[in-house]
Amino acid sequence: MTDLPPPLASLSLANLALSLDDRGIATLSLNRPQKRNALDAATVGELIRAFTAFPEAGVRAVILRAEGPHFCAGLDLVEHHGADRSPAEFWQLCLRWHEAFNRMEYGGIPVIAALKGAVVGGGLELASAAHIRVADASTYFALPEGSRGLFTGGGATIRVADLVGKARMIDMMLTGRIYRGAEAVEVGLAQYLVEDSEAKARELAEATAANLPLTNFAICSAISHMQNMSALDAAYAEATVAGIVNTQPDARARLKAFADGTGPRIKPGQGA
Ligand code: 1HE
Questions:
Q1: Closest Cα partner for 68 from 109, 39, 34?
Q2: CA of 76 to the centre of ligand 1 (A)
Q3: For position 270, what pLDDT does the model report?
Q4: How far, in Å, are 82, 162, 221, 249, 253 from residue 179 at the CA level?
Q5: Domains, the chain, ordered by start
Q6: Which of 5, 18, 173, 218 is most exposed by smallest CB count within 10 Å?
Q7: Pocket residues for ligand 1 (CB within 6 Å)?
């Protein structure tokens, strides 16, 4: 682990913990295990600050993990109950959640979520803003909003529906259906199911951090933006991004290595 550079050192985090290794891989931990890492307004503010600072700090990949046995219990229901918010106040709060999660999804830096235990409600909204989700045997996914008299407000209608499809999301919200294990992978909630989600997330972070940053920037922002466009506009935008990324000077050495036969060949058993 290395000392945090200035934009990260001055973040003053209380509900998150942050470290950085010498390869530029940041580990961001949800750090309220006594509250099952429920997302209160302060934590959402910290997520915004951290994901705003990462590009400036030259971070190359982020592992998003949690202290305690559960990844995240979603909206802080106790804070929400105590605050007795007006519609406008909760509307504003949801915009803060969107700011945090949009910075994750569109920020251009790979975010790999190491999941365990409950990934529910807003916790699933948080996880779904990561680029890769890694689950272990303890991990389970649910949208308990329906039974709590609530509705999703942190982007699940976009990201969770995108992962699992509209029908499954509606079923999860209406009935409280829980997905776990191989079934969770099959429906698209996680891409990996492993014994140790943190070790796997680190392995994946190291692999992604070895890519060129401009290439990762395109993968971790352009694809999401293009999903929001018409097919015609997305194709045009893709050509534009490829025009920039595929002619970057830093790629020349990798292309030369392939051309002279020293670069890696894409075969099973080699690479990720
Ligand atoms: C919380 C929260 C929370 C735990 N807000 N404080 N999310 C939910 O509906 C899930 C609510 N949580 C649970 O169902 C369970 O807590 C868990 C299955 C995640 C964990 O169970 P367990 O037995 O390990 O812990 P616990 O005893 O229930 O909780 C331990 C403490 O964490 C306790 O606080 P304490 O001060 O009494 O010790 C709980 O109150 C606290 N805690 N979860 C606040 N969510 C933008 S809209 C998004 C809408 C949603 O996310 S709705 C889904 C909300």
A1: 34
A2: 7
A3: 61
A4: 30, 16, 28, 45, 44
A5: 6-209 (3.90.226.10), 213-259 (1.10.12.10)
A6: 5
A7: 35-36, 38, 70, 73-78, 94, 97, 118, 120-122, 144-145, 148, 150, 152-154
